[in-house]
Amino acid sequence: MSIADNINSLKKETGALKVTLIAVSKTKPVEEILEAYNTGQRIFGENMVQELVEKYEQLPKDIQWHLIGHLQSNKVKYIAPFITMIQSVDSLKLLQEIEKHAEKNNRIIDCLLQVYIADEETKYGLGFDEVIELLRSDEFAALKHIRIRGLMGIATNTDNEKQIKEEYYELKTLFDGIKQSFFRKDVSFDTLSMGMSSDYKIAIEQGSNMVRLGSTIFGQRVIKHWKNN
Ligand SMILES: *Cc1c(COP(=O)(O)O)cnc(C)c1O
After folding, report:
1. How far, in Å, from the CA of 46 to the mean position of ligand 1?
2. What is the number of the ligand 1 atom nearest to the C-alpha of 218?
3. For every residue of the chain, which 3-state class applies, written as one string?
4. What pLDDT does 228 receive?
5. Residue nearest to atom 7 of ligand 1 (CA)
6. What is the mean pLDDT of residues 7-14?
7. 213 within some domain
8. 39 lies in which domain range?
9. Average pLDDT over the chain, rounded to whole?
């Protein structure tokens, strides 16, 4: 199957369920991104700032770019002018840095709080208590150029479907609780980003409304620099 075939069938599947499809194009060359773009796909996800900026410069300007990888505070300035959504916010300090650069660019930047749900040491994210603490803080209340659209989480990389299901269930429960407590009157808190190629069906069953799919669309990633592909 071609990239176009893959994306067309995934768009049908997710569209029918009102789930937003993020095409994760990290490590993939611009030609392959254009193949997806030419099917009508407009939302793409990248995890490295430099790669994202270079692709942004080379590709059509109506692409909506989502940053899905860990963001260092000192790199916010490179993406603040154009980024559609930062899904990987994992500290108040980072939010304050995004605020600063959003203001400079005269924008409000959509963000998701990345919540740690996996049973692994390596994944970034806020703990459940830390999310609540952040949302309750005066520092958070002072941010005027940030719009929190929802939560993002990455489940454990495992074949144990029951475990994945439980992790996504917990994140959905947290999402519903936070919506009730902090965003009841705010319709823009509407996004629960969970699900990758290996587990997106489980994630959707558990209430995800945004999936981030890379290998299912573009094929397996070989670890090499995207420009030398
Ligand atoms: C790479 C990546 C994905 C996509 O992974 P696939 O398994 O290729 O679908 C999704 N989310 C994040 C945060 C990623 O880094």
Report:
1. 9
2. 8
3. CCHHHHHHHHHHHHHHCCCEEEEECCCCCHHHHHHHHCCCCCEEEECCHHHHHHHHHHCCCCCEEEECCCCCHHHHHHHCCCCCEEEEECCHHHHHHHHHHHHHCCCCEEEEEEEECCCCCCCCCECHHHHHHHHHCHHHHCCCCEEEEEEEEECCCCCCHHHHHHHHHHHHHHHHHHHHHHCCCCCCCCEEEECCCCCHHHHHHCCCCEEEECHHHHCCCCCCCHHHC
4. 59
5. 197
6. 97
7. yes
8. 3-218
9. 96
